[in-house]
Structure formats: C-alpha cells, structure tokens
Design brief:
The complex is a heterodimer of chains A (675) and B (143). Chain A has 675 residues and is of the alpha+beta class. Helices cover 41% and strands 23% of the residues of chain A. Chain A has 18 helices and 21 strands. A 5-stranded mixed β-sheet of chain A has the order 6-8-9-11-10. In chain A, strands 12-13-21-20-19 form a 5-stranded mixed β-barrel. A 5-stranded mixed β-sheet of chain A has the order 14-17-18-16-15. The two termini of chain A are 58 Å apart. By secondary structure, chain B is mainly β. The mean pLDDT of chain B is 88. Chain B starts with a strand and ends with a helix. In chain B, the strands form 4 sheets. A 3-stranded antiparallel β-sheet of chain B has the order 2-1-8, with no helix packed on it. In chain B, β10 and β11 form a beta hairpin. Chain B contains 1 helix and 11 strands. Chain B is 9% helix and 46% strand. The chains are: A alpha+beta (675), B mainly beta (143). The interface between A and B is medium-sized, with 29 and 20 residues.
C-alpha cells in the first residue's frame, strides 16, 4: 500500500474511534442539543469516510459509508428517533466498516456489501423514517428575520428550526461584530459558548454597522434561556441578543402530535450544560508524526539530564544560598515529569477504546448464533499505546468470535448441564509491571483436548502413543493451519486465525497462553509489553543503588526491631513469611550486618492468604514516587528488572515485582540447599 | 570483499580494529555506564542515548580480551543498538579489494571478525556487528 496514504488510513481510524465513542455516548440520557450535536458529528464522520474511501479507490466501502451517512442524516433532521436498537444497528454498521478497512489495508478485496448482515435492519430504519402523509412541516417563516436571510437557510437548518420550535424551545438570535484580525478564533469561541447553552442552528454572515470595520455574524440558537454573560463577548464586539421565534405562537394546526412540551419558565429550566460537556466534535485534533514526539521526548530527556547535573552541582556547594535554587530545581523536575507524562499520554489510548470495538460485535454474534451472552469488561480505564490498539483489534475480534462460536454452548445444552442459559464472557485488562495483560475468559465447554491431540497427530505435529501435557495440546491450537473444525462456520473455524493471533501478539513482543477445563470454560491470556509507562513506585536503596518497586505489589513496609539476614522469617499481620535480601535476589553483595527495613510483596490480585507473599530486606526506604519507566532493549534484559527511570542520581532501576519474588524464592532455595 | 568501503579505524580492548561505517549510527564521547545488577553477561550496563537505553558491550566477556583494559574515550553506536567502547579513535580509511584475508583460526576474535585487512604493514581485524550480537546471544544462553 502506498505510504502516502498512511495519513488517510490513520485519519479513518480516528474517525472510527470518534464514531464509536459518540455512539456509546448516545446510549446515555443527554440534553437534546447534545444528542443533536453527537448525531451531527456522526453524520460528518461517515460523510468524511465516504469521501476518503472514494479517494482511496474503494467504491463499495464508499457506498456503505454513504448508507450509514443517510441514516445519520435522517436522525439529525429529526426523522428518526435515537433508540437502543437503532444505536445497536449503527454500532454494528460502524464495526462492519472498520473491519472492512482493516481487511483493505491488508490487501484483501472489497466485499460486495460491507453491510450485508445489516440489510434488513437498515431497510426497516429507512422505512420508519418515511415522511408522514401531508409532507414536511416548515416553521422557518416564524423567525423574525428578513426574507432573503430566510431563503438562504439550508434544508437542514430549516428542518432544525421547525423541530426546535415544535419541541417548545424558543429560538434566539445573537448579533456580534468581530475584529477582522481574529474573527475566526472569536467566532469559534462564541459559537462554542452558545452551543453549550442550547442548539446552535446556524451561523449567518450579517451586515456590519456602518461605523465598524469588523465582520458581523448572527448566531441562531435554540434554547429555553440565554445567558448573555456566559457567552463571553468582548465589550467592543457589540453583542445583542433577541428572541427570533416563540413556540407559543405556532398555529395549533401545525403543532406536532403529540403536542409539544409546554414552555418551561426560565427559572425552572435546568442549567445549561457546562462547557466541559460540550460535544467532542468541537475539539481540535492535531495529528503528529510519531517521530516528532519521539524527538521531543529525547530532547526532554536531555533537558532532564542537564537539570540533574545542575542540581548535583548546587548540592555540592553546601551553602545557604543554594536553598532557593534547589527548590526551583525541584519545581522544574515536577514540571518535566508532567510534560513527559503528557507526551506519554499522547501515545496512549484507554483500553475502553478496544472494548468499544468488541461490544457491538459480541451483541451481533450473540443474536446471529442464538447464544445469549453475559458480557463484562474490566480494566477499561487502563491505557495502552495507540499503535497497539490498531494491531490488537483483529486478534481480539478473532478470539471473541472463537469463544462464542466454539466455546459457549447453546442455551439448551447449557441448561441441561445446570449452567446459566446465557454464557459468560469476561474480558479484563490489568497492568502487570510493564506488561498489559488481557484475559478473555468464558464459561463454555473448554477446549476439546482429545480432538486437538488427534488433529495434531494427523498433521504430524505430535507423535502418537506419547503422553502430551494439556499445556502442549493447548499450544497446538496456535499452530499455523491448525483447526479441529470439519467445516468452516460462518464465524470461525477456518483453520486460520489463532496462528495469526499468535504471530501478531508475538510480533508485539508479547505472548499468548491458553488454558481450559472441560465444561468449565477457557482462558486466553495475552501479555503485551509497554515501551513506556508511568508507574507508582516505592523507592528503596540497596548497596548504594536506588530501585523502584511498583506499589501494585507492595502490601506493606515495616521495620524490624533487630537486623535480619536473608532466609530468616518475619511475622507480618499474623503470618510467618520468609525474608530475603534484595541484594541476594539481584546477586549484589549482601550487607554483613543484615537489614531492618522490610518491604512485603504480594502477587497482584491475590487476596490475603492466597498467592505468594514474601518479605524483601532493603537498606533504606526513600519514599514513594511516580516514575516514567522506559523498557530495556532486549540485549540488556535482566531478570527482575522491568526498566529504568532517569533520576537526579542517575538511572533508577524499576523492579519487576513478580520476577523479583521468583528470584527471592530461588535464592531462599539455594540457601536451604546451601549452594 | 569486492568493493572499496569506508571503515572506522580505532583501538578497542587493546587492539587496532576496523568497523564498517555503514554499520554505525554514530561515534560519541564515552559517558559513564550505569551497571545493571544481575545483567546479562557481555553487557556492562546501559547509557542513555537519544532518549533510550543503549546497552554497552563488556569487552571482558569477549574471548581473548586482556583482563585490564584502558578506560574508553569514545563509543561506537552500532545500528543494531549496541554501544562499543573504544580506547581511542584513529580515523576512517578506504580499504580496497586487495589485501583481505580470512581470519586466522587461532585468533580468539575470529568469531566476531569478517576478515583481516592489510593496512600499511599490519593486518587489522574487521569486526562484524552481527557476529558480535550472535556472540552476545550465545553468552546469554550459556553464561
């Protein structure tokens, strides 16, 4: 694929993200003007996708996007009401287009109809939106505006004027005269402020006063009450507001059925949405090449190193005059970390973005297969690198399809086994050190290991007559071309897919594990490394070196009344736990006099009494800190070290707590064996 | 070796060496290396280079290196992101087709060499970064 189209692909991906988020927001109750703004955003997104697909030479994609655009157009004109089933259909439509885009990018041919599976639903929606007998009402003439201005309103604006008035909402006109040099910026600000108070129907050019050199505009806004002060106009902008139309004046014969809501006195009108609740489409989105952000990160690191060097010099001076500069250095350090975190966030997206792609597909598959599903997501507030999101979507969709198609039993089969009629599918994300872990768990039938073994023997992957562990058999499912399905189903079982999932995950430096139990379900676990992360750590010192221990694994810190040596036991909250020196874990020289400061580690997610708990002896506990973690290159991978963070005193190693616990156990066993 | 190429001419681990310039990212002044506790054999630690951690070769792990090394003055940053400490820099040179010979089997550096190159009256080892990486991987597997 031509590299010059990379930006277009990336923009399409962004549009899909926006569309999914906006559709999700429509499921929650919102003020009418925010719903309208969301629908407008969706209309624009599909319109842009249509144009981009045409530009890339994919006419069928363009047609499919056009079909969705039509539905959003009907919605924004008030001819289709937003309902749960409508949103679900549109989510499936967006999902179908997005999957299609991934296929196109990989060089697959265009399907005949991207929306094939949704034809019936889309047809029903279009039928529902047909105009009622008697044609379309138009109340535009009620606006107190000159005829030539009224004639200049678009069909859409006329439809909205009518709909707003029929809903019992007055329409206001706001006249402003803006300075020529900054009119675009000011008009945007005023439009946003007006839009946050109601529905901004139109922004019309207006005749400027004779004595003015500026540009004049009329903002047409549907709202129950207009707060002039909140618009934030400057005195010289000559803001004037007046009511353009009053819904009480609509002739009874033109009123909608059911009757429009009675006008609510301004005092009882709910306060206008805060600007923060303004619809997302007004947010300006900047697209930057990743290399530019990387260069900025590198430059920032150099600045941080310079600051650290300056700070060290200051500390060496040891006189009174350094107090203030050192305090300022501290401020600079905090500022640098904030900027580094912001840069990091530019690379990150919430895991929810991935979940939003999966949810509509699960619902559609559930409907198509007749298998009700109890779907749950956990850990959506975690973040992953944006480049991972794009590459993970398809593997995830494949895994979810597999779970529904092969894992979950039919409702009757489940009932016969004493299970809930609806299968459970739980997708969770958790951060394990520098790894992001995804668990896809179902309570279905589990993998048929006997069938996998037979298939593995038939394919020559394993030998007959030899014992094969469940782990080995589960891994066979990840071999290229491996499928136990006699026939390809509509959903999965084509013999391709799991190996592609593995290749994609391993290509990202991650790993995949499968486990299952007959009739109890399956677990597919993906672990993916993050190249950078902000990790809350406990800073400790051992052998004059500083280390960070992620707080996610620190159960408590305590001091022992006497110095302890590795291999001794410590009582922690009524439990007798083994203690090992951190130096011994990392093969550093152990302190001859033992250690009094103890850090109790517990496996993440483990409850008290379950999972491994171990006590680490350290020389000094410095405190807690948020650290910007950078992973180590493969050549420098070191057991127990997750990555490093640049600090004033140099590079601080952030420990991988799970690995350190393993090293501690190994060290304790060596002590027992006296090796 | 059939064409003339440009090589970095330097001293490393007490030997005069050549490195293909096209395998280099850059040559920088040597900065203190942060050791990695329990780090892999063959890597003495990392330095920060262009915002990322750069592993630095520990010559002492390479067979045939003297136990006491001169402090490094410069570092060659190889394309496969590895720092090679250099005792000192001599410059660059163009080596022509003639004057190449197979590395002698009894040279302990032969596993990391492409060939020997005749420069003036000396045969200098031309190091191969890929073979160096392979050696590091072997050291990691069999420490």
């Amino acid at each position: 694929m031509d590299q010059s189209f990379d930006d277009v692909w990336a923009e399409c991906e962004d549009l899909f993200i926006q569309a999914r988020q906006t559709l999700t927001s429509l499921k929650e109750p919102q003020p009418a003007h925010l719903v309208q703004a969301s629908v407008n955003a969706l209309f624009r997104a599909t319109h842009t996708l249509k144009g981009m697909a045409g530009m890339l030479g994919f006419p069928r994609f363009s047609q499919a996007a056009h079909r969705l655009e039509d539905i959003f157009d009907l919605m924004r004109k008030g001819r289709l009401r937003s309902t749960d089933s409508l949103i679900e259909t549109l989510e499936s439509g967006i999902q179908a287009l997005e999957s299609g885009l991934v296929g196109l990018r990989r060089g697959r041919p265009e399907p005949d109809d991207y929306l094939h599976a949704l034809r019936r639903q889309l047809g029903e929606l279009e039928a529902l939106a047909r105009p009622s007998e008697g044609g379309v009402r138009d109340l535009t003439s009620m606006l107190d505006l000159p005829t030539d201005v009224l004639k200049g309103l678009s069909d859409y604006e006329r439809t909205r004027v009518t709909a707003v008035l029929l809903a019992g909402t007055p329409i206001y006109g706001i006249n402003v005269c803006l300075d020529f040099s900054s009119f675009d910026e000011r008009l945007r600000a005023l439009s946003e402020a007006a839009g946050s108070q109601g529905e901004l129907i139109s922004t019309l050019p207006w005749e400027a006063p004779e004595d003015s050199l500026g540009l004049a505009f009329l903002l047409v806004v549907g709202t129950h009450a207009m707060d002039i002060q909140a618009l934030g106009a400057l005195p010289e902008e000559g803001l004037e507001a007046r009511r353009l139309a009053d819904p009480k004046r609509i002739p009874a014969s033109l009123r909608a059925e059911p009757a429009p809501a009675a006008e609510v006195p301004p005092a009882e009108v709910p306060p206008p949405a805060a600007p923060a609740a303004a619809p997302a489409q007004d947010m300006e989105v900047l697209r930057l090449p990743a290399q530019r952000v990387e260069a900025l990160e590198a430059r920032l690191m150099a600045v941080a190193q310079l600051r650290d060097a300056a700070s060290r010099i200051l500390r060496k001076r040891q006189d009174q005059d350094t107090e203030q500069p050192l305090a300022m250095m501290g401020e600079i350090e905090i500022g640098l970390l904030e900027v580094q975190k912001s840069l990091l966030q530019m690379r990150m997206v919430r895991v929810d973005s991935l979940f939003q792609r999966i949810e509509p597909m699960v619902k559609a598959l559930s409907r198509d297969t007749g298998k009700p599903v109890r779907l749950s997501f956990h850990g959506g507030d975690l973040e992953l690198e944006r480049n991972l999101l794009g590459r993970l979507t398809e593997p995830f969709l494949h895994l979810v399809r597999n779970a529904l198609d092969h894992g979950l039993e039919s409702p009757s089969e489940r009932l016969a086994q004493g299970k809930n009629e609806a299968g459970a599918l739980r997708i969770s994300a958790s951060q394990r050190g520098r790894n992001l872990r995804f668990d896809i768990r179902d309570d279905g039938r589990g993998f048929d290991l006997a069938l996998i073994e037979a298939r593995g023997i038939a394919l020559g992957l394993i030998k007959e007559g030899q014992p094969h562990s469940p782990e080995r058999l589960h891994r066979l499912a990840l071999e290229p071309g491996f499928s136990t399905q006699e026939r390809a189903s509509q959903l999965s079982g084509r013999g391709v897919g799991m190996d592609v999932v593995r290749a994609e995950v391993e290509g990202l430096g991650g790993e995949i594990q499968i486990s299952s139990e007959p009739r109890r379900g399956s677990l597919v676990r993906l672990s993916l490394p993050l190249s950078r992360a902000v990790v809350s750590c406990l800073k400790v010192r051992c052998d004059r070196q500083a280390f960070g221990i992620p707080l996610s694994h620190v159960l408590r810190v305590q001091a022992s009344p006497s110095a302890l040596q590795g291999g001794e036991h410590v009582e922690v909250l009524g439990q007798n736990l083994p203690m090992e020196s951190l130096q011994a874990c990392l093969r550093l020289p152990e302190p001859a006099g033992g250690q009094r400061l103890l850090v109790v580690l517990r496996q993440q997610g483990a409850s008290a009494g379950a999972g491994l708990e171990i006590v680490l002896g350290v020389d000094e506990v410095v405190g807690r800190a948020e650290l910007l973690l950078r992973s180590l290159p493969e050549l420098a991978h070191t057991p127990g070290v997750m990555g490093g963070s640049l600090q004033e005193e140099g590079i601080l190693w952030v420990l991988d707590p799970e690995a350190v616990m393993g090293l501690a156990v190994d060290s304790l066993m060596r002590r027992v064996a006296r090796v | 070796m059939s064409e003339s190429s440009t090589f970095l001419h330097a001293w490393a681990a007490g030997r005069e060496i050549l490195l293909p310039v096209h395998d280099l990212r850059e040559v920088v002044a040597f900065t203190p290396v942060t050791p990695l506790p329990g780090g892999p054999r063959g890597i003495q630690g990392v330095v920060l280079h262009q915002g990322e951690f750069l592993p630095v070769l520990d010559w002492k792990a390479v067979p045939g290196c003297p136990p006491d090394l001169e402090p490094a003055l410069a570092m060659a940053v190889l394309r496969p992101r590895l720092g090679l400490p250099l005792d000192r820099l001599i410059g660059t040179l163009e080596a022509l087709e003639a004057g190449w010979q197979e590395p002698p089997e009894d040279d302990p550096w032969s596993p990391i060499m492409v060939s020997l190159c005749r420069v003036d009256d000396r045969d200098l080892p031309l190091l191969d970064p890929d073979r160096l990486l392979a050696l590091l991987h072997r050291l990691r597997k069999h420490p």
